[in-house]
Amino acid sequence: MLKRLVLLLVCEVSLYNLVTSAKVCGRPPQVTGAYVQYEMQVYEPGQEIIYQCNPGYKMTAGSRKNICRATGTWPSPTMKCSPKLCSYPGSLVNGHVLFSSLEFQTTVNFTCLEGYILHGHNDSECQHDSTWSNPLPVCKPVTCGLPEIPKYGLIKHHTKLTGNTTYFGDTVQYECSSPYVLFGNEFGSCSANGNWTETPECKLVTCPPPTDIENGFMSFAILRKHGYGEKIRYGCKPNYVLDGSMEIQCEKTGHWSTKPVCRASCIISVKRARIFYNGQKKWIEELPERRVQHADTVAFYCKDKDRGCGYPVLTQCVDGNLIIPSCYEEPSKIAYSVSYRSLPSEIKQC
Hints:
By secondary structure, the chain is mostly beta strands. 7% of the residues lie in helices and 34% in strands.
């Protein structure tokens, strides 16, 4: 009886070891973007599972299968699932398409340039079947009414006008009927806010009768008011030079442009000199009345006594005044007429 009991106990222990020696696997490891078909809590050694990519993902590497090891562990899965891509939604005319990626579940945003209004959805999402949730919108220009015509003026349209509607960016040119003058911008445009830029004005402009200039004269002496753009000419009396524009014009301000000035010529104060004038060496008596015109330059020759050479020094006629260089020494009559070869202008130059 005791032997039979011991034998029965040995058989139960052996049967227990036989059943519990094999280990099972728990839930299989996860794969990003995938799931396990018919997933269970426990798997027997040798039991196989199949991975399947989630909607919006596609298999890009590895194997879909995995098998529970006898040790009760799972090998690392090799399968990789990557997000599907949507095609570029297209260019948005007069707008921008903003995005960081074209992968599944990412969103693109649409914006319009200034002066344009978005018609449609302002965003779209990449779906699991690689299509976009919303179609590409349209950017339509802002519209304006007709621009105001200035009094005493007219408008030239730069684009063909259809009906009473104009569009952002349309431009016009304003003109005034003679003798009116345009004040403001010559060109106008339909703005992004749906309004036209400020309308200019047409005003009548006149200038008072012009006045004389000292030592000069006008081309004609009819004293009357003059309209915008009219011109008057000036001249100078003999021995005077016009400094400034010969013509003045009646401006938008109702004033004349700057009048010229008559500048006096200069009479050289020395009687004996060899000078350099108008690109030539000349004796002073060769100049009629020893006169040079305003703004003309004259070179007088001085002598460097230490080195025994001559050198020119420039001076200029400024409205009747010409200053003789301080270094210049007027020669005597004999030196000037007989010994002229020893003058600073004739000897070796420094």
